[in-house]
Amino acid sequence: MEPKCVHYTDQRMKRFLLLLIPWMVMASTASAAQIRSAEVVFTHFGAISERAIRVADECYVPLTFLAKVGWKYTVKNSSVAIEAEPRGARVPIREFELGPAIPLRMALEQMGAETFWEPDNDKLQVCSPVTKIEVSGNKVQIETHLTTRPRVFRLTGPNRFVVDIPGARLTRDTVQQIEGNGVRVSQIELNTVRVAFEPGYRPSLPVIPGLGTSFKWELDPDEDPGTPDEPPAPPPVKVEPVVKVAPDPNLGPKTVAGPLTLDLESSNRVMVSLKLSGILGKPAQFRRPEPDVLEIVLWNTQVSVPDSASFNSASITDISVRDEGPNAILALKLARPMGVELSPGLTNLGIVLMKPNVGDGKLAGKVVVVDAGHGGHDSGAKSPLNDAFEKNLTLKIAKQLSERLANEGATVIMTRKTDVFIELKERAEIANRNQANFFISCHINSNKLSNSTSGGITFYHKDDPIGQLLADCIQREIGKVSGLKSIGTWSDGRIYESGFSVLRNSKMPAVLVEFGFINHNVDRKRMMTDDFQRDVASAIVKGLKVYLGDGN
Amino acid sequence: MATKKKQKTSKGPMIGLLAIGAIGLAVLAAYVKFGGADKIPTEVKRVPAIQQPASNKTKPDQVTLITPTREGTDLNLGKHQSDVPAGENPMLFALNHFLRESKIVPDDARAVGMQVKDHVALVDVSPSFNQSYGSMDEETLLKGICATLAQFPEVEKVQFFVEGKVVGSLGNVDLSEPISVRPKPENP
Ligand SMILES: [Zn+2]
Predict the structure, then answer these.
(1) What is the pTM of this model?
(2) Residue A494 with chain B: CB contacts under 8 Å
């Protein structure tokens, strides 16, 4: 199997040409069956001194391990019921030469913990998801799913207080309610979450909060510029001095980036980390010029060494760097379209690639819910002369889409086939009840403040990386055929914080397409044609296939 | 190493302010609920002014009015100060100004009454308000309404009613529960 070697380099900027990866690791099928000894690093406990073994991706631990992390258990026949906070688990027992053992990852998954193998060894990291971080007025509240032990200490440069939560991870479901601009929340290490407070404020006692799942502080004025508190253990991430390279008088010294390292590669995600000489002047952003190409824009940055990436990943088939004005563009060619999340740290940029669960990678056999927006007494957006209603256009497009999906072998469920009103929550429920693989909602936009706004937008929910990927794949295809401008893909949080009801409540990859503006004369005329309705329906089918990797 | 005493001194005035706010609120709610007599005692008319935060430069009997405009897809909410006409509820006055300027809701769509209960502004709207729009108009309406009500410190959330029934949505955003008038802005 030869990987594709595609270069994404700007011809004018050859000096920043980076390496390509000429080979891939051949998966060793033999190793899957091997039993190796392993180590478990367990939330705030750190490394657990109990024997553990790795069998493929599972980690087996003896029953004595359970007491070490404070779990009670009862053995029944060939399974173990574990009592733990916040919820227990039931797993089978297997016999190994170390005695009866249980699959730890299976148990932790039932408890809602996050586990992952470190990339280059047999160390299993067990982390608690952070469920909530709230900073409101002078009140701070942090909640974690499993028991953790936060550390509070003072950092220098700038002089500010931070709370570190070892053995914890920010997740998609972490609720962050942060007031004030000075508070920073980040995943500073694979297993450490940091909340940094605005300089001049310090959390009230206790400085050593102890064990728990819910922690509260009040922020008090911090008049003491004082000497930094040593964190109990281990030391905080060192802030390395910014290396000055060819300073632009207007932008200040450039940040130096590199090397790029692979932290984790698993069946559903890849984590790479780009070392940085300091905090970027503006947050890194990413864009997706092609579904399987990721470009990360690094503000006022220079990549230090040409061959800064020296790892092999089956998911990243090529890496290149180029300049774009003062910024560096780090381009990753991916083996297939993936969701992306950037997690900025103090001295690195974490890049998390999420592989969507595409099953067999075929559209045939997938369940797709097609939602024609509005209906019945709810006309949706109306044309200025009240001669075109959103509800009618969405139904026409939805019918076209359903027909085309069915032709591809997908199972299609329409939320409505006639001019009836369906509650927003019920639309998502239809998809959830049927365990749909996709939810596609069809809508028409309106902007009465400006009759000149034209074009299509595909929405995804909040900062959902998988929804965003699906939206990018679909909007890209719609833009090719609609004959209207493509405004792009938007988070529904841009419209209102809570996002759209149908996207928030559906549990599968979901998008909402606004095909064009009903109050724009060109958009409306075009959208009312059979051609348009047929073409955008075909484009959505194409977008789904690109997302799935079907037919490439 | 640690400053052990909590900085409680600043809380006294806050509590006082809250108390004044709460009394004001009760008076205002009573005024709204009982229909508002033609002759309003001066103290009641001044209530909204007392409730303004110190940083707000609004003079007594003035409110901030919001006028939305669009540059392409970017929404701008223009603000200016205005006197509240005698006898008018400042919140309703500001809200109806915004609705008129939005050019989105029908001409006869108005907020016809409101009360603030447990920091939730319960707004009665005329039946023609209750319909749905494309997402960009929905954004204008929600952000404009929130910005209008966010100037009143006692209001944290808002919910709309037509003839006693909750307005479920103006398009895609769920309004069946009260929504915050100070939503966290979306990261770009
Ligand atoms: Zn709609």
Answers:
(1) 0.62
(2) 139, 186
